[in-house]
Design goal:
The protein is of the alpha+beta class and 432 residues long. Helices cover 31% and strands 28% of the residues. β20 and β21 form a beta hairpin. Bound molecules: adenosine monophosphate and glycine.
């Protein structure tokens, strides 16, 4: 089979998709590589296509016309829009769940019901479709307590309320101005512990844990400031030890996947389990139905095996026989964002130093939000603009090298955190 080239289409245009594209392009089995819509960095290794990743008909038509053998879906929106269903229905292999299984990210309440059905450990919860009963529940339970919007956009709609007044304000804000029946809220028990993520590659019957990672969601040093999509990450995550990973697989991932299959909606793709770990015991915070961003930029570069082979095996239900190998290195990535992100920020600023950063030993530069300018210029085109990853034998060395890379970038309009990895490094010091 090794001589049969496969043409691949990756959907998305961020740092995660650059990491996918880099891994796939390195495969001897990779034929033509398309990314829709891609970005300036991806354009150096793939053909960028101006397709809307959420337009199922357009994606399917393109894949069919070009003879694409595998579609890899990066973000969640196309999955929730049913793009994987449409591609699969056209007889084309696709990495990513169908619309029904994407409910594991789309609906907090759906995930909670599945967890309850199989006894998977997670925070106690209740769902309300009106503010009054939700307020009453908060009054009864007290704070701290967690208030979440149900449905997509829910990523932004999470309030970890330290007082009942904050929780009630969050509930009122969610229902304010919404027509009856349009808004719903999930209220959860507040869990304590340390958060880390487990990425599991799934076909209809096999779940293969890939790797662990931790990200930094707050904009500023010391985990201060507004929540973002992630300002940096490292892999592996020390707190998610092999024993904790095994417990998460046994008590959370395997039973949930079995339940999804039993309901006739098996999950195929990358299951991202956000876990809260306390006393070496994992509980589920949330699922995502895709790779994390920037977690993909630290997990995928650690893979030694052929990424395209691995993704094809998952898409074709052949994972059972696959044992991927990993480089014994730590990876750390630093995100360079536009000043003002996650609020308002400027676009179209020239970015220099990209070659100098990429030339450093162990450093890879992933583009997250860039566009090609005149005469080969690279311009900022998003909130998160670059992710600078370094691979090294230890976390401390990976951190040092990633910051050398970030410091080599010439972009006065950008900013980045100086402390990515601090928690794991502090833990290493404690253990020493
Ligand atoms: P989510 O969108 O569900 O991942 O929530 C965003 C963030 O809120 C998580 O990464 C946690 O830091 C925090 N969080 C969510 N649910 C809980 C919970 N039940 N207890 C404590 N923290 C939580
Ligand atoms: N870095 C968090 C996410 O991808 O959702």
């Amino acid at each position: 089979m090794a001589d049969v080239l496969v043409d691949v289409l990756v959907l998305g245009g961020g740092g995660r998709e650059h990491a996918f594209a880099a891994g796939i392009a390195a495969s001897p089995r990779c034929g033509r590589l398309f990314v829709a819509p891609g970005n300036a960095g991806i354009a150096a290794i793939a053909t960028c296509v101006p397709l809307d990743p959420c337009d199922a008909a357009a994606v399917t038509e393109f894949a069919r016309a070009e003879g694409v053998g595998l579609v890899v879906v990066g973000p969640e929106a196309p999955l929730v829009a049913g793009v994987a269903d449409a591609v699969a229905a056209a007889g084309i292999a696709v990495l990513g769940p169908g619309r029904a299984a994407a409910e594991l990210e789309n609906s907090k309440a759906f995930t909670k019901e599945i967890c309850d059905a199989v006894g998977a450990p997670t925070a106690a919860w209740a769902r309300f479709e009106a503010a009054g009963p939700a307020r009453a529940y908060v009054a009864e339970r007290g704070a701290p307590i967690v208030v979440k919007a149900d449905g997509l956009a829910a990523g932004k709609g999470v309030t970890v309320a330290m007082t009942a007044a904050d929780a009630i304000a969050a509930i009122d804000a969610l229902f304010d101005g919404m027509p009856e029946g349009e808004a719903a809220v999930v209220i959860e028990e507040f869990m304590t512990g340390e958060e880390a993520s487990l990425f599991v590659l799934c076909d209809a019957t096999t779940a293969l844990p890939l790797a662990t990672a931790q990200d930094h969601k707050r904009a500023f040093d010391g985990d201060e400031g507004p929540n973002t999509g992630g300002m940096g990450a490292y892999s592996p995550a020390p707190v998610l030890s092999p024993a904790v990973e095994a417990a998460a697989m046994e008590r959370i991932i395997a039973p949930v996947l079995a339940e999804m299959a039993a309901r006739g909606t098996p999950f195929r793709g990358i299951l991202y389990a956000g876990l809260m770990i306390e006393a070496a015991t994992p509980r589920l915070v949330e699922f995502n139905v895709r790779f994390g961003d920037p977690e993909a930029q630290v997990v995928l570069p650690r893979l030694e095996s052929d990424l395209l082979d691995l993704l094809l095996a998952a898409a074709e239900d052949r994972l059972e026989t696959v044992v991927p190998s990993w480089r014994s290195v730590t990876a750390l990535t630093v995100v360079l964002a536009a000043q003002g992100y996650p609020g308002r920020y400027a676009k179209g600023e020239a970015i220099g130093g990209l070659e100098a950063a990429a030339a450093l030993p162990g450093v890879q530069v992933f583009h997250a939000g860039t566009a090609a300018g005149p005469e080969g210029a690279v311009l900022s085109a998003g909130g998160r603009v670059l992710a600078i990853t370094a691979l090294a034998p230890s976390l401390a060395e990976a951190q040092e090298q990633a910051y050398r890379g970030a410091d080599a970038i010439d972009w006065p309009g950008g900013f980045y955190r100086r402390d990515i990895g601090w928690r794991a490094l502090a833990q290493e010091d404690d253990d020493a």
